[in-house]
Amino acid sequence: MDLRLDGKRALITGGSRGLGYAVAEELSREGARVALLARDADAVESAAAGLRAAGHDAIGVVADTSQDRQVESAVAAVTQQFGGVDVLVNGAAKAGGGPATGLLALDDDDLRFEMETKVLGYLRCARAVAPQMVERGWGRIINIGGLAMRRTGSVFGSVRNVAVAAVAKNLADELGPQGVNVTVVHPWVTETAGVQTVIRNSAAARGLTEAEIAEELAADVSVGRLIQPSEVAHVVAFLASPLSVAINGDAVAAGGGLRGPIFY
Questions:
Q1: Residue 119 near residue 161 (C-beta atoms within 8 A)
Q2: Residue 102 banded pLDDT, cuts 50, 70, 90
Q3: What are the pLDDT digits (tens) for 171-198?
Q4: Percent of the chain residues topping a pLDDT of 70
Q5: What single DSSP character describes residue 153?
Q6: What are the C-alpha distances in Å from 63 to residues 9, 71, 83?
Q7: Looking at residue 249, what DSSP letter applies?
Q8: Nearest CA to 201 among 217, 188, 187?
Q9: Sign of the CA dihedral 92, 98, 221, 249?
Q10: How would you write 51-100 as a 3-class SS string?
Q11: DSSP code of 117?
């Protein structure tokens, strides 16, 4: 299928590693020009250089999405370099995971950080690119959430991802009539380099094999294994495409299917 992304200009926040980088690779393969945004200047430039070495049109920009001015400056730089931004993929956030936290152990500042980075950060980036998308009459904003929104065990993980879904729906209703579709993708545990490190460390600490730890992590996944970053990126690429016009404001689960509850 031709996703009609050739020549589209994409900005991926949190794009220097993990799922963000996988999305950048996939959009590049579809012919998009990609700008990777991250806080670490060396990491983001190295990631962009890797894409260029593979023959893709890619740049790296440095910004902390918790800072308004840095976001505005980064979007202005990408717009100047590429001539505009057609697709925004919001993915800059603290990685989820870790043991469940009980009520009395919750740290209010942790939630403030989560909301400032993942929720308000996504809003800042959307606010910075939406005017030009509206002016052109076309755009795509894809927010990376997480299936912790459907599970208990992590209060802050649930809160931040429910909030991301609420942001997407509100923006979709506002911007949809002007040609800008907004969606949210909810991965589950995805086998990024960070998760692979967790698997190795846990295997060593518990005297188990890495395959056994991976199997434990995938116990609730109906396809029977952990989903790869590239497989989530396939979903994001479709949502970034003009062909995805029928999907607006809705959440797309991309975790391999969680066993049990029926969502409709």
A1: no
A2: confident
A3: 999 999 999 999 999 999 999 999 999 9
A4: 99
A5: S
A6: 18, 6, 19
A7: S
A8: 217
A9: negative
A10: HHHCCCCEEEEECCCCCHHHHHHHHHHHHHHHCCCCEEEECCCCCCCCCC
A11: I
